[in-house]
Amino acid sequence: MASIHRRVTRAGHVRYRAQVRVKSKPTLSATFHKRSDATKWARRTESDLISGFYSPPQSRHTFMEALKRYQREVLPAKVPDEQKQQWFQLRKWHLFLGDVFLDDVTPGAIAHGRDALLTDPFFLAPATVVRYLAALSHLFTVASTEWEWLDNNPVRRVRRPRLPRGRVRFLSKEELSALLESCQQSDHPCLYPITLLAVSTGMRQGEIRNLRWENIDLSRNRITLEHTKNGERRAVPLTGRARVVIGEYSKIRRLDTTLVFPSTRNPQVPADFRKAWGRAVTTAVLEDFRFHDLRHTCASYLAMSGATLAEIAEVLGHKTLSMVKRYTHISDTHTTKIVERMNGAMLDSVP
Q: Is there a domain that residue 232 lies in?
């Protein structure tokens, strides 16, 4: 006999627990997000038990077991900021998927979590939801290929949200001047060099926060990033005003940490400058501007200075040109001048 019980978790999510009892057979149960999935499983399992075709799965593992093993064996290989971010993302998935067995997680259950993230006021950006799906997909890939805890990755059958065109918000020279002046006046000791470094080099916030003095070579005017988002080592030129400021900043560095921008409370962790950044943006009267837009500002100024998309990609650390194509319209003027020079040199003299 099969029965379906509706339950509500502490987080307020509805779950359906299917239970199958057949005389002289073990009682079996499984939890699902949809009543229809629970009903299908119960009917199939009851039929298999009665006909004698049911074979219990071996060594079944729960989603929580997978989370703990992933945290223990996979996350330590990632950079600290990425560890925290992915662990937070996976814990969020646990709220949607619960303590079900891995092989009971269906694409429908994952799609339900995807839709919940998209409607959550804290997860409005489709790109953010795509990153959550990527974190979950990697966990299932490792669980299926390395641990052999299940046969396939159900996330692969879930449609990703459609991403909007990448935004390009960059500062005018007047806005940049106002922002840097505001950062100089800030009480936060690291805000000005951090901001200047970001707009001068196009480095990501995580790369700057985790920067260590051994990564900076002032004699050769460059920064070497050992851990980047795409997993490749990258050399970043350190020149001009940024080189001068970092050089002066190195003279007053703390000796109890290797971090370039350590926290004043605990020098072994990176500085938190979010509140100071918000105040600086407000003081500079900048609308719709985020810290990551400093990276866009760097790329935009490179494009306006005549850099090709391939050169911009190399500076920013992109493996492909797809991410930098958003700056195509900014470099149109430069492209036009190149074609004009070619026409002047080669074609104007042709009768």
A: yes
Check if 318 is active-site: yes
Say whether both 325 and 181 belong to one domain. Answer: yes
Regions of the chain short of the pLDDT cut 50: none
Return the bridge partners of 28, or none.
Answer: 20
Catalytic residue chosen out of the listed positions 204, 209, 234, 296? 204
Domain that holds residue 76: 63-157
pLDDT in tens, 183-240: 999 999 999 999 999 999 999 988 999 899 999 999 999 999 887 776 678 889 999 9
One domain, residues 127 and 187: no
Residue 342 belongs to some domain of the structure? no
Sign of CA dihedral 87, 88, 92, 95: positive
Summarised one tens digit per residue, pLDDT across range 115-136 is 999 887 666 678 889 999 999 9
Is 132 within 8 Å of 152 (Cβ atoms)? Answer: no
Answer yes or no: do 151 and 251 share one domain: no
DSSP line for 82-123: HHHHHHHHHHHHHHHHTT-BGGG--HHHHHHHHHHHHHSTT-
Whether residue 292 lies in the annotated active site: yes
261 by Cβ neighbours in 10 Å (0-12 / 13-18 / 19+) ranks as: buried
How much is the pTM? 0.60
Asked if 227 is an active-site residue, the reply is no
Report the domain count for the chain.
3
**Which pair of structure tokens corresponds to residue 344?**
């002047």
* 92 assigned to active site: no
Query: Is 265 annotated in the active site?
Result: no
